[in-house]
Amino acid sequence: MQSIQVAIGVVVNEKGEILVALRDPAQEQGGLWEFPGGKVEPGEQTTQALARELAEEVGLEIEQAEPLLSLSHDYGERRVELAIFWIARFRGQARANEGNPIRWVSPQTLTGLAMPAANQPIVSAVLVRLAAEAAR
Ligand SMILES: Nc1nc2c([nH]c(=O)n2[C@@H]2O[C@H](COP(=O)(O)OP(=O)(O)OP(=O)(O)O)[C@@H](O)[C@H]2O)c(=O)[nH]1
Ligand SMILES: [Mg+2]
Q1: What's the domain range around 29?
Q2: Following DSSP, what letter does each residue of 99-129 receive, concatenated?
Q3: Strand, helix or coil at 52?
Q4: Nudix hydrolase domain: which residues (predicted)?
Q5: What is the pLDDT of residue 65?
Q6: Average pLDDT for consecutive 10-residue bins of the chain (136 residues)?
Q7: Which residue CA neighbors atom 4 of ligand 1 most closely?
Q8: For residue 78, which atom of ligand 1 is closest to its CA?
């Protein structure tokens, strides 16, 4: 089965809120909330794809991206390989460049959002990371 490489950013602001975007209802997985990101294009490094997707989708310039976790998920008709990065340093104001609503959400709200099935371990890792930072 084909495997799709995807770069994803978990963007966290100074209040400890996380940036999410609503997937277009017409897309596959439409109507679910997701972290900004997208497919790595041929010839591109994962971090280049991450920078491009964040600029395109939410208008942010990454200052620092740290690997958070990588996972693969089988959606049946396709398999995705997700490389997820923690982004606590960035430039710009998040805006919905592609017309899909975006939101900054608390960890509590994040836990309750409807997201793609692959995202459950990502949300867990985000909660652990935020708790660790709050305890410092
Ligand atoms: N961006 C993003 N994609 C995710 C998440 N979780 C998840 O399973 N995916 C999957 O990753 C794949 C690629 O993401 P994408 O649709 O954003 O790709 P893209 O921005 O390049 O879109 P395009 O192909 O319409 O240009 C999709 O199959 C999507 O379902 C997530 O939190 N964020
Ligand atoms: Mg995308």
Answers
A1: 3-134
A2: S--EEEE-HHHHHHS---GGGHHHHHHHHHH
A3: helix
A4: 2-130
A5: 98
A6: 93 97 88 97 98 97 98 96 98 91 97 97 97 88
A7: 34
A8: 28
What is the number of the ligand closest to the CA of 36?
1
What integer pLDDT is reported at residue 25 of this predicted model?
Answer: 84
Q: How far is the CA of 8 from the centre of ligand 2 (A)?
A: 8
Q: What local confidence, expressed as pLDDT, does residue 60 receive?
A: 98
CATH of the domain at 38: 3.90.79.10
Kindly state the tokens that stand for 59: 């208008």
From residue 30, alpha-carbon distances to 22, 24, 34, 57, 104 in Å are: 8, 5, 10, 16, 19
How far, in Å, is the centroid of ligand 2 from the Cα of 36?
Answer: 6
Instruction: Provide the number of structural domains found in the chain.
Output: 1
Question: What is the model's pLDDT at position 100?
Answer: 87
* Residue keyed to tokens 């975007």: 21
Pocket test for ligand 1, best of 1, 34, 81 (most atoms within 8 A of CB): 34
Q: Which of 32, 39, 74, 97 best tests ligand 1's pocket when mutated (most atoms within 8 Å of CB)?
A: 39
